[in-house]
């Protein structure tokens, strides 16, 4: 059977992708950020999964106001890096896992979650920047991401957005789906986006370090309580784009201690850095006991 062994959490910022692509990761502005992910890159080399379920948000790249799925799953064999205005990032094509993705769609929809099935889409910085942070630079011609990736897109851009509770419950359903897949696969789930940031309006530039660090504490220690936080608290405390953090609850809801009696996951790595562009960057790696 397939099983979820670890969850990874990280912010995304388009400027991080540009720093990787333009060879700027050792410049003074960027060096401390990338140093914080060095242990994570080593960990991923040592704990290479068979598949990554990558929870992220599209930024009006694949989707637009024409149609707005709340939760979508990419069932395609591959996903091209999107052109976000300056051409596509020079990174490898993201290979999917249509069999597992279709199984998750089947199982999660039968558990009463309305996933939109997407057989063709391009993926923007929301998905490729977390991959770059965790995998390092990849040559688009000869390189490849370490394993297939199933994109799970969440609408946190256009209101109404899903609640943290709904995201947490979706994570639980995803765990059940993975555990009912009959191939022996080591699966990681990544929750991305956040932490505090606001890109627009009177409060543009808002960062709330205290709130972010408390969010990290609660995500580890009391995710069930954290899931009950209303969306307006994210917006008030972490800025309008801070709402991206609800996606982290999908990954946390898929861990073993949420499914039943099991020890809390082991914190393999924790990192927080301010700022990257306009955003506070948070990062966690949580491992389930073997
Ligand atoms: C920035 C952050 C985001 O989450 C995003 O989608 C775009 C830009 C930023 O900090 O610049
Ligand atoms: Fe974003």
SSE layout and pairings?
Layout: E1 3-10, H1 14-21, H2 31-46, E2 51-56, E3 71-74, E4 78-79, E5 94-95, H3 98-110, E6 116-118, H4 125-135, E7 149-154, H5 164-179, E8 186-192, H6 209-221, H7 223-226, H8 231-238, H9 246-253, H10 256-259, E9 266-276, E10 279-287
Parallel strand pairs: 1-8, 2-7, 2-8, 3-6
Antiparallel strand pairs: 1-10, 3-7, 4-5, 9-10
Helix pairs in contact: 1-4, 3-5, 5-9
The protein binds 3,4-dihydroxybenzoic acid and fe (iii) ion.
Share of helical residues: 25-40%
Q: In the CATH classification, which architecture applies?
A: 3-Layer(aba) Sandwich
Number of strands: 10
How many DSSP helices?
Answer: 10
CATH topology: Protocatechuate 4,5-dioxygenase, Chain B
Order of helices and strands: EHHEEEEHEHEHEHHHHHEE
Largest sheet strand order? 6-3-7-2-8-1-10-9
Task: Please state roughly what percent of the residues sit in beta strands, choosing from under 5%, 5-15%, 15-25%, 25-35%, 35-45% or over 45%.
Answer: 15-25%
The N- to C-terminal Cα distance equals: 14 Å
What small ligands are held by the chains? 3,4-dihydroxybenzoic acid, fe (iii) ion
- Assembly category: single chain
* Overall tally of structural domains: 1
Silhouette:
globular
Architecture overview:
Helix 1 packs across helix 4 and helix 3 crosses helix 5. It is built from ten helices and ten strands. The longest helix is centred in the N-terminal third of the chain and has 16 residues, at 31-46. With 290 residues, it is an alpha/beta fold. It has a single domain (3-287), classed as Protocatechuate 4,5-dioxygenase, Chain B (3-Layer(aba) Sandwich). An eight-stranded mixed β-sheet has the order 6-3-7-2-8-1-10-9, sandwiched between helices. A two-stranded antiparallel sheet has the order 4-5. The chain binds 3,4-dihydroxybenzoic acid and fe (iii) ion (FE). 3,4-dihydroxybenzoic acid is lined by residues 12-15, 59, 197, 199, 241, 277-279.
């Amino acid at each position: 059977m397939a099983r979820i062994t670890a969850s990874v959490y990280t912010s995304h910022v388009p400027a991080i992708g540009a720093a990787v692509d333009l060879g700027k990761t050792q410049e003074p502005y960027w060096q401390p950020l990338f140093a914080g992910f060095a242990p994570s890159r080593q960990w991923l080399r040592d704990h290479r999964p068979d598949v990554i379920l990558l929870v992220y948000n599209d930024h009006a790249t694949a989707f637009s106001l024409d149609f707005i799925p709340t939760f979508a799953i990419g069932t395609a064999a591959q996903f091209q890096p999107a052109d976000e205005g300056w051409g596509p990032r020079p990174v490898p094509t993201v290979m999917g896992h249509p069999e597992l993705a279709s199984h998750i769609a089947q199982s999660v929809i039968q558990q009463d979650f309305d996933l939109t099935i997407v057989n063709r889409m391009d993926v923007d910085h929301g998905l490729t920047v977390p991959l770059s942070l965790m995998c390092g630079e990849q040559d688009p011609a000869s390189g490849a991401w370490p394993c297939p990736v199933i994109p799970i897109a969440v609408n946190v851009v256009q209101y109404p957005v899903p609640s943290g509770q709904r995201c947490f419950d979706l994570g639980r359903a995803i765990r059940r789906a993975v555990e009912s897949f009959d191939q022996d696969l080591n699966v990681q789930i990544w929750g991305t986006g956040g932490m505090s940031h606001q890109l627009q309006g009177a409060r543009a530039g808002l960062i709330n370090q205290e709130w972010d660090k408390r969010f990290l504490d609660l995500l580890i220690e009391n995710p069930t309580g954290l899931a009950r936080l209303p969306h307006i608290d994210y917006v008030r405390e972490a800025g309008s784009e801070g709402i991206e953090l609800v996606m982290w609850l999908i990954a946390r809801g898929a861990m073993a201690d949420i499914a039943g009696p099991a020890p809390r996951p082991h914190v393999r790595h924790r990192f927080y850095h301010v700022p990257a562009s306009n955003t506070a960057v948070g990062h966690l790696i949580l491992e389930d006991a073997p």
